[in-house]
Amino acid sequence: MDLGLTGKTAIITGASKGIGKAIAEVLAEEGCVLHLVSRTEADLNAVRDNLSSRFDAQATVHALDLSKPEDVQTLADATADADILINNAGAIPGGDLAKLSDDDIKEGWQLKVFGTVGLVRHFYPRMCERGDGVIINIIGMAGERGRVAYIAGSMGNAALMQMTRTIGAESMDHGVRVLGVNPGPTQTERFTLLAKANAEKQFGDADRWRETMGGLPGGRGGLSEELAAVTAFMASPRASWVSGTVIMVDGGQHSRPPA
Amino acid sequence: MNLGLSGKTAIVTGASKGIGRAVAEALAEEGCSLHIVSRTEADLNLVRDDLNQRFGAQVTVHALDLSQDADVAKLAAAAGDCDILVNNAGSIPAGDITRLDNAAIKSAWDLKVFGFLGLIREIYPRMCERKSGVIVNVIGMAGERPRAAYIAGSMGNAALMQLTRALGAEIL
């Protein structure tokens, strides 16, 4: 299927690893011109070189900290006419209310919530003016199924989901689509490290990390590539009637009854 | 993007027009072998010939009324080992509860609700046994955002959505 993405310009935040990197790969393969954003220039350069050698993709690196409004502004100035904005950067720290002060929570939201809101504030009006554009927010299942032990993430993700639905419900009037993709537990490097640590604790053998995931659908986490393929399709004109919704990509876990 | 659908076998119900036909076209273009189903053989033949000619697709026509259990069984016998089942057939008539008596609602659900359910009952266990398969139910927004003036559709679609969520999240 030709997704019709050739020649589109896409910004991907948090593009140096995990889901963001996988999205960058698919979009590069589909012929997009990319702006890759994360804090670490060396990591971004490695991704850029990889994409340009594998797919001959044109990728520009932006080493920025999107928890800082001035860096959001810098990105917005440098990439004014992007067709696609993928907000993916940010991990909100775990912990319950007793552990996290208000300041901790605000700081945890600074990148994921306010970084996303800041970029949407810059790009959404421009897209509306052009009558064309797609914003995809990569959020996280805790926004739908909150957990006390991940209270800041549960609240922050819920806020992003509601922003997505609210803006995406009016955006088609301006020719723009706004939607969300919600990963469940995903086998990124960080996730696998955690599973290996658990396996070491449980079995004394880190190699048995897959056995620690019995409670997940099909006994595994999602793969970054699985998230990326759905995201690329949603960013493409083939998904031209999808807006204001948040798509769960979690093997069905969000529909399971509470454990 | 290569969707990896080439060579897969798919059943599409309600395939003679509208969304079902568009699904059949997209799958044919991606290289699926199709079983297309609706009540009207002449309409299905037109779709088959069109898909044949445009995409070289292998398409089998099943003129069946999926509101009848016997026809559901026939389809399952003929094409039950499919990789993909797209339940799309059926439209539920509008009307509020004063206009639609229980008999009218049951009869409306025979195709869209019980037709879906019947095919899933036949095909889902086979897919589980093979550890491979996809069932896509094309439902309708009223199941999520109900309207009193479309009460049978609101209820029926909500039931199908919950069937989808329950099976799709199954814990063994």
The CATH topology of chain B is what? Rossmann fold
The CATH superfamily of chain B is identified as NAD(P)-binding Rossmann-like Domain
Quote the distance from N terminus to C terminus of chain A: 39 Å
Number of helices of chain A: 7
N-end to C-end Cα span of chain B: 33 Å
Strand elements of chain B, count: 5
Q: How are strands sequenced across the largest beta sheet of chain A?
A: 3-2-1-4-5-6-7
Name the poorly predicted regions of chain B: none
- Cα-atom Rg of chain A, whole angstroms? 18 Å
Secondary structure category of chain A: alpha/beta
Portion in helices of chain B: 40-55%
Order of SSEs of chain A: EHEHEHEHEHEHHE
Tell me about this structure.
- The complex is a heterodimer of chains A (about 260) and B (about 170).
- With about 260 residues, chain A is an alpha/beta fold.
- Chain A has a single domain, classed as 3-Layer(aba) Sandwich (Rossmann fold), CATH 3.40.50.
- Helix content of chain A is about 45%, strand content about 15%.
- Chain A has seven helices and seven strands.
- In chain A, strands 3-2-1-4-5-6-7 form a seven-stranded parallel sheet, sandwiched between helices.
- In chain A, strand 1 (about 10-15), helix 1 and strand 2 (about 35-40) form a beta-alpha-beta unit.
- In chain A, helix 1 (about 20-30) runs parallel beside helix 2, helix 1 packs across helix 7 and helix 4 (about 100-130) runs parallel beside helix 5 (about 150-170).
- The longest helix of chain A is centred in the middle third of the chain and has 29 residues, at about 100-130.
- Chain A starts with 8 loop residues before the first strand and ends in a 10-residue tail after the last strand.
- Chain B has about 170 residues and is an alpha/beta fold.
- Chain B has a single domain (about 10-170), classed as 3-Layer(aba) Sandwich (Rossmann fold), CATH 3.40.50.
- In chain B, strands 3-2-1-4-5 form a five-stranded parallel sheet, with helices on both faces.
- In chain B, strand 4, helix 4 (about 100-130) and strand 5 (about 135) form a beta-alpha-beta unit.
- Chain B is globular and about 50 Å long.
- The model of chain B has no long low-confidence stretch (mean pLDDT about 95).
- The chains are: A alpha/beta (about 260), B alpha/beta (about 170).
- The interface between A and B is medium-sized, with 15 and 12 residues.
